[in-house]
Design a protein that fits this description.
single chain, five-stranded antiparallel β-sheet, alpha+beta, Alpha-Beta Plaits, about 450 residues, Uridine Diphospho-n-acetylenolpyruvylglucosamine Reductase, domain 3, 16 helices
Length: about 450
């Protein structure tokens, strides 16, 4: 527990009503989507960058670990207080400061919920493409810290592609500005890109300058059902090879479809073994032409049925299928390990076969779905921890999944980050010299190792 004098300092900085050490409050901020639990000593809710700077200056002087947290929706343990200390929650910094319709930029605080920001800019005819599955509750600060992705990444890119500048509080309590509002800028090192995806280990983001796009005129959504996972995977490569870049290109395998059937009552043909959800956007005439081209491209690949949305309501019905996946997985087993490997698009069929072989070898269910358009596969290892030996099987299977992805020229994380769950596997992907450089950056910015310790690196 924190010494009474430290707790009093925190109260003076953020106000007594915005700091707590009550057991119930500490428990609420002890876990994330990984379901690991680590109790913090205190939870603070600062109101601005200046308060965050004071907290970090005090923590740095007292050698107290600080763990930045947004909505706590991460899948890699990035916000977990693994060594106790202070959880610093940024949800009070939740304002959209301005939306500039002339220069197509916006300035926001980190606690703004992703979907609420998207809706705000769309009312003005603008568009913020990154759309992680957690968009209804994840915050933009967390999206930047993890460099979040989502289904639309295949066409539009990930979070870092839309971040022009940041205000950041460093581990030693300095408030710095990185980047700006211009589309170009090459003065000094690119600290903006360094902070994107740094998982809260190098600084706490307190303000974000975001690039926007014009809102596409229209979109068209299609659900294509295949008689094999190979056909669906080949369809992904064939569509891209046909010089069409869809907005989204999502896939679900047979195990995923069975989960969805049970959870939602979705009616699918008996021959359905895989599904692609394909969406195109842009000019109305263009997307009609692209939709027809896509259906022609995939037709020879074992298509059982196609469903093309004609209205916004029908499009929403198709996307309900995809959004129901995560909740439905508990039908397989109660405990889920959600990994997010990424491989070159052309290697998606090979990766799926590797995962199927791993599942057979270890006799545990593995359910696959994800963003096939950019090769990002969500590999869900489903077990029951209460069954002896299941956890050990899962850990071995996950290591083999990572090894297979790397063998195919991929990565062990496309969008979830490393956190503490993937840190033991870091040497599988990064050579020792690269890790040494990364650790040198961490030491330079955080010499007392107080900001989000225990993440990315094992030591």
């Amino acid at each position: 527990m924190l010494e009474p004098r430290i707790f009093k300092i925190l109260q003076e900085i953020v106000g007594s009503e915005n700091v707590t050490a009550e057991d119930a409050d500490r428990l609420c901020y002890s876990y994330d989507a990984t379901q690991q639990k680590f109790l913090p000593d205190a939870v603070v809710f600062p109101a601005d960058a200046e308060q965050i700077a004071l907290v970090l200056k005090m923590a740095n002087a007292e050698k107290i670990p600080v763990f930045p947290r947004g909505a706590g929706s991460g899948f890699s343990g990035g916000s977990l207080p693994v060594t106790g200390g202070i959880v610093l929650v940024t949800t009070r910094l939740d304002r959209i400061l301005r939306i500039d319709t002339e220069n197509l930029v916006a300035e926001v605080q980190p606690g703004v919920v992703t979907e609420q920001f998207q809706q705000a800019v769309e009312k003005l005819g603008l568009f913020y493409p990154p759309d992680p599955a957690s968009l209804k509750f994840s915050t933009l600060g967390g999206n930047v810290a993890e460099c979040a992705g989502g289904p639309r990444c295949v066409k539009y890119g990930v979070t870092k592609d839309y971040i022009l500048g940041l205000q950041v509080v460093t581990p030693q309590g300095d408030i710095i500005k990185t980047g700006g509002e211009t589309m170009k800028g090459v003065v000094g090192y690119d600290l903006t890109k360094l902070m994107c995806g740094s998982e809260g280990t190098l600084g706490i983001i307190t303000r974000i300058t975001i690039k926007l796009l014009p809102l596409p005129e229209a979109k068209k959504t299609m659900l294509v059902i295949f008689d094999s996972i190979d056909g669906a995977a080949q369809g992904v490569s064939a569509i891209i090879g046909g010089k069409i870049i869809p907005t989204t290109l999502e896939f679900m395998d047979a195990a995923t479809l069975e989960c969805v059937r049970q959870a939602t009552g979705l009616q699918l043909p008996a021959a359905a073994k895989a599904v692609l959800i394909i969406e195109v956007d842009g000019d109305k005439e263009l997307i009609e032409r692209q939709a027809q081209q896509i259906l022609q491209i995939v037709a020879p690949l074992g298509v059982v049925e196609t469903r093309v949305a004609q209205t916004a309501a029908e499009s929403e019905e198709i996307w309900k299928v995809r959004r129901s996946v995560s909740a439905s997985l508990r039908k397989v087993n109660p405990d889920k390990f959600n990994e997010d490997i990424c491989v070159p698009r052309s290697r998606v069929p090979d990766m799926i076969r590797e995962v199927e072989a791993i599942a057979t070898r270890h006799a545990i269910p593995i359910v696959n779905f994800g963003h096939a358009g950019d090769g990002n596969i969500h590999v869900n290892v489903m077990i029951d921890r209460k069954v002896p030996g299941q956890l050990e099987k899962a850990e071995k299977a996950i290591e083999e999944v990572f090894a297979a992805a790397l063998k195919l020229g991929g990565t062990m994380s496309g969008e979830h980050g490393v956190g503490n769950t993937k840190s033991p596997y870091l040497p599988m992907e990064l050579d020792p010299a690269a890790v040494t450089y990364m650790k040198a950056i961490k030491r330079a910015l955080d010499p007392n190792h107080i900001l989000n310790p225990g993440k990315i690196f094992l030591d």
